[in-house]
Specification:
By secondary structure, the protein is an alpha/beta fold. It is built from 11 helices and 13 strands. Helix 7 links the parallel strand 6 and strand 7.
């Protein structure tokens, strides 16, 4: 059975029929323009060296070569076999703030969408690690328990919105507690062992913080869990957009009709990261900050998840690539003009029009 390493690239094959339609349209339009100056029989006499068959053949060869190049880029693989190997990694719990203040647009397109993009970038760098997703506002909930299925993690991440939690606020302390629970802390059925293969990443604007987040971060680190924070937003106050069923109504206002503003509580997020012996990343430096967090994660002790079976494939991209190159060389050897020596009339004694 054929397996493709990059199946998404196969969507590029849709270019082939689009180019074919465009080619037919151009040929028909060119033919109509020519017939405006001469009848069909006279046009053939005026252009005796032009070979439509060769033009069609060259274009068909180029389309076939392009299709083979796309297939080669997708890297077809065959010969799947199961191999046994040990799997070692770390456990990462990501706590994502989904309070209404995360809709503020001081970070484009808004704080929440930028945060989701950052989480997606983090997940893309994981290999043998397990990831959990915790969402929180005034309360915290486990959106996805620990898993090594990164596709499922991204699917759950895409579904996250501010409508998922009614209670407003920023319960970072409760979120840390939920992260510890997903690691197995407090579960009487699972013996708890302190180790250095667990980390928490909190993504929030830190505003409306009311709970014991710093104390919880210290407690997490005492159990061997490093706590990192990523701050979303800017220290400058900005209004909070208000939506109803996806329709933007304006900006949130207080009882006196004044716009409610939100700002990044950078100091609080720094204190939490410091208490958890982690790293604080400001929103204006997320790319470099994620690399710093990933660098620290890579230095954590890896936990052995035991032996697992892995699928191993053999790449066969070289075959469609070779055929594509051969087709391109053949196309270069075919000229659009008729060969005056090797043509239909000289070989069979009559022209194609009299067949």
């Amino acid at each position: 059975m054929i397996h493709f390493e990059h199946p998404i690239l196969l969507y590029l094959l849709l270019i082939i029929p689009a180019l074919l339609v465009l080619y037919i349209y151009i040929r028909i339009r060119r033919r109509k323009r020519a017939l405006a100056f001469a009848e069909s029989s006279m046009y053939n006499h005026l252009t005796p060296d032009v070979s439509n068959i060769k033009s069609h053949t060259k274009f068909g060869i180029l389309l076939a070569a392009l299709a083979l190049l796309i297939i080669a880029m997708a890297n077809p693989q065959m010969g799947s076999k199961m191999v046994k190997g040990e799997r070692a990694g770390i456990d990462v719990a990501i706590a994502l703030d989904i309070s209404n203040s995360m809709l503020a647009e001081d970070v484009q397109p808004n704080r929440l969408e930028r945060a989701k993009k950052s989480v997606s970038d983090l997940i893309a760098q994981f290999t043998n690690d397990r990831v959990a997703l915790i969402i929180f506002a005034g309360k915290a909930y486990t959106q996805l328990p620990l898993t090594s299925d990164y596709g499922a993690a991204k699917m759950f991440l895409d579904a996250v919105s501010t409508d998922m939690i009614e209670y407003q606020g920023t319960a970072i302390g409760e979120a840390i507690s939920k992260c510890m629970e997903t690691f197995g802390y407090g579960n009487e059925d699972i013996p708890w062992e302190k180790n250095k293969s667990r980390t928490i990443i909190i993504i929030s604007d830190g505003e409306d913080h009311e709970d014991n987040a710093v104390e919880m971060a210290k407690m997490a680190y005492a159990e061997g869990i490093v706590v990192n924070t990523i701050g979303m937003g800017t220290p400058n106050g900005v209004p909070i957009p208000q939506y109803s069923r996806g329709t933007r109504l304006g900006y949130k206002k207080d009882r006196d009709g004044n716009p409610v503003t939100t700002r990044l509580n950078e100091q609080m997020l720094q204190q939490i990261a410091q208490a958890g012996n982690g790293t604080f990343v400001p929103a204006n430096n997320i790319t470099a900050g994620i690399e710093e967090i990933m660098d620290r994660i890579s230095k954590l002790d890896k936990k052995n998840y035991g032996e697992q079976m892995f699928s191993e494939y053999e790449s066969k991209f070289q075959y469609p690539l070779i055929f594509a190159i051969l087709l391109i060389l053949i196309d270069l050897l075919i000229f659009e003009r008729r060969n005056k020596v090797l043509n239909y009339k000289n070989i069979f004694g009559k022209s194609p029009d009299n067949r």
